[in-house]
Every structure is written in structure tokens, then in C-alpha cells.
């Protein structure tokens, strides 16, 4: 079950990288000085990526836990 643990760790790291990317995107959007509607549109797009990255990270952690439980 080692492959499940390491695979889950990799998936978790991909999700974490996505979350960091969302933080960077929001930070850049706030520094760009956009008006409220443009900022709101940008944030709505980032929220979708944020949820996807969070889901990916959670699935990776589930894979790790299942790998540990079965191993």
C-alpha cells in the first residue's frame, strides 16, 4: 500500500500548490487596483480554482489515510 500513500501525498501536494496559486492570484488582483466589478469577476474565477484545489488536497489526504489503514 506504499504506492497509495505516496500517490496520495503527491495529490495532496498538487492541491496545496493550487491553493498557493489561488493566494498569489488574489494578491495580484488586489494589488492591480481593479475596480469593484473587475475584482469581483476575478475573485469569482479564483474561487472555482480554490474549491478544485481544496477537493484535490482532500482526496489526496483520504488516499494517504486509506493507504495507512490498509497497510
TrEMBL record:
The keyword Membrane applies. Keywords: Membrane, Transmembrane, Transmembrane helix. The chain crosses the membrane at residues 6-26, 47-70. This is HIG1 domain-containing protein. It comes from Albidovulum sediminis.
